[in-house]
Amino acid sequence: MWLIFKKEFMELVRDRKTLIFMIALPVLVFPLLIGGTIFFTSNALEDAENKVLKYAVIGNANVADINSALSEDGSMLERVTLTAEQDYVAMIQADELDFVLEVPTPFNSEVLESGQLAINLYFNDAGLNKVYQRVSAILTPLSEEYQLQAFRALGLSESQQQAIVTPMLINRENVADNREVWGERIGAMLPYFLFFLCLQGAMAPASDMGAGEKERGTLETLLISPMPRYKLVLGKFFAISLSGVIAALVTVSSMALWTVIISQGLAVGFIVELLSSIGVLDFVLVFLMLVPVVAVFASLLLSLSIYARSFKEAQSYMGGLVMVMIFPIILAMMPGIELKGVWVWVPLTNVALAMKELVKGTMDYVALLGIFGSTALIAGILLAFSVHWFNREKVLFR
Known about the structure:
- By secondary structure, the protein is mainly alpha-helical.
- Helix content is about 70%, strand content about 5%.
- This is ABC transporter permease subunit.
- Keywords: Membrane, Transmembrane, Transmembrane helix.
């Protein structure tokens, strides 16, 4: 068994493609995904914030207060005069205009006399833009000034004004600390990256040890050796599992390292605070929980690989396995599903829930017994199925 393990692992180490999935992919993918997302999102938001907006005012277009408010931000706004024949809705859809303000006629700033003033803002909100936010930022101070004028006309004190604007004030007192708040948001995505990269780390060697052996014609040589079939399976299983465990270890280390680097470079203090609040034990438990998960993946991948007629067919089967892996992670993200009761025993979903609880700092460590037990049981059943598969000539020589 250990000779098979040594042989298979040495072949993995010599294979450049396997090293990419085991080491390069976990180290590079995480920073590229996070850093790329932050970079492009920041650039898009900055472009939307600094874009010179073309606009027009229709209806009562000569309201001095509105024109004055818009002209104060004149360097970022460009006014266009429309004729009666021009279709401003079509112009907005064609990107010839960014927004149009329709001002009511008549327009009376004495809101106690005129009532509420309704100004219609036409813009295209299908893409990433900040038209509504920027126009609101310009007109909101004007609306507040009209409000103060009405309060002064009514002779209301400041406390009476506040009571009218907000008759009942609800003060939010969140008893959860920052780690729990941000852990709930970030921790739910952690299993997605970890499971995916561990699966990718085990997929390449699994394809080669089953379907690859068939294509090269070396499987028959192994089968005629005096070694029992189950030892042959265990040797391949441990090699695939080690590949996935290395990918898991590199992934966890890479995520911790690059998150600190990215957050410090972008001055995202809450991420540094969150990581500093997570203890070493929690990081170790995250890694240890990935070990039985990798065993599940390794057993299942080995069975699919030995069933496939060719390397290409094995890759197609394993591609579908990614969709199966996503389902338990989605379950863990659904509201109302917590690491309690029956969910402690649901394989993969319980690990995803536990990772979120570890990041939040609310982990019930007693539940680890059920998590490790159920996941190890599934891995053992799948491994036994792989041994059964290897004992069937119809499967080996399809």
